[in-house]
Amino acid sequence: MIGRIAGLLVYSQPPQLLIDCNGVGYEIEAPLPVFFGLPALGEKVVLSIHMVVREDAQLLYGFSTVAQRSLFRELIKVNGVGPKMAIAILSSLSAEEFALSIANHDVAALTRLPGIGKKTAERLIVEMQDRIGKLSLEGGVVTPSSAGGPVTNSDRTQAIEALEALGYKNTEAQRMVKGAAGESVEEIIKVALKRAAP
């Protein structure tokens, strides 16, 4: 199994990125916080990997820290939560915010996430209660890159596409991005997600 990939960043468009490792390109899906900390294209990047082998595909999920990957692995053990939903959770909430929602039995906060209904939220709280305490969540948050430059319509379009990939509907994604300030696509997405949660 692949547990770590180090190579050159070739492509980056949430939720997917491509890393060239000695001539082999690995397609990886990752939560938004990973993209906030990525270097420029062509530069070296190292990610912790979770590999899923299915009958019809071999999928790679990348994380900036081992703590992020550990939380992802605990999430996909929950009945009804697959890799795509786990990525959406880690994209919308930091590890600390998620842990707080679980500790406070905050069903409302969890149901605001794309694809999560009341029953799934309640199941997450019940099943993650014991697991969350065992995880070391330190280092699970990646800060946004400080790349400068004015926000363009292309940036907003990319942000909308990334939100749609996380499960938000187009009209909802447009509403979330409208007026969101930020100097990069990643910052626009982060602001939009914060505005979506009360």
Descriptive notes:
- This protein is of the alpha+beta class.
- It has three domains: 4-63, OB fold (Dihydrolipoamide Acetyltransferase, E2P) (Beta Barrel), CATH 2.40.50.140; 66-134, Orthogonal Bundle (DNA polymerase, domain 1), CATH 1.10.150; 153-196, Orthogonal Bundle (Helicase, Ruva Protein, domain 3).
- Helix content is 45%, strand content 19%.
- It is built from nine helices and five strands.
- It has helices at 32-36, 66-75, 83-92, 95-103, 107-111, 118-134, 153-165, 170-177, 185-196, and strands spanning 4-13, 16-21, 24-29, 44-53, 58-63.
- It has a five-stranded antiparallel beta sheet, covered by helices on one side.
- A hairpin with a 2-residue loop joins strand 2 and strand 3.
- The radius of gyration is 16 Å and the shape is globular.
Order of helices and strands: EEEHEEHHHHHHHH
Biggest sheet details: 5 strands, antiparallel
Low-confidence stretches: 136-152
Counted beta strands: 5
Structural class: alpha+beta
Determine the CATH topology of the largest domain: DNA polymerase, domain 1
Strand order, biggest sheet? 3-2-1-4-5
Tally of helical segments:
9
Give the amount of beta strand, in percent.
15-25%
Mean pLDDT: 81
Our measurement of the CA-to-CA distance between the termini, rounded to an integer number of angstroms, reads 40 Å
CATH superfamily of the largest domain: 5' to 3' exonuclease, C-terminal subdomain
Name the helicity range.
Answer: 40-55%
